């Protein structure tokens, strides 16, 4: 999802991602994912230059949810120790505290800051009564089909791309 990291948009993106996680049956991860996403988008809003444009990506790979925010600022973020009465500087420490792992990757023209959360068993299994839109059939698909994908490629991926 591409957006400008403005305060008015951060809440909207948090609600969209929360809805996607509910659809993937990842309700236990919503609070930590929303907190981490809010911190990353706030960092873009406060620090990114030359603009506040960014991309949010949420990816579920079998047992791990990865949330990333990419921006056009090549400067790397710093994990700092905030003093007791500091009003900022705790965002990455919060992400480190609630996530399984986190990091930063350089990209052409910017960077991507990401964190992962462990997905509970049974995640990304859509309710069996819903049709699968855009597929050649109405679904649901037999789990043997998914097992074939896992055997052939080593993993099955569930991704969401939502335009904002």
Automatic annotation (TrEMBL):
The keyword Metal-binding does not apply. It holds the Pfam family HATPase_c_2. Gene3D superfamilies: Histidine kinase-like ATPase, C-terminal domain (3.30.565.10). InterPro entries: Anti-sigma-factor_SerPK, HATPase_C_sf, HATPase_dom. GO terms for molecular function: ATP binding. Keywords: ATP-binding, Kinase, Nucleotide-binding, Serine/threonine-protein kinase, Transferase. Residues 4-116 form the Histidine kinase/HSP90-like ATPase domain. This is ATP-binding protein. It comes from Streptomyces tremellae. The lineage of its organism: Bacteria, Bacillati, Actinomycetota, Actinomycetes, Kitasatosporales.
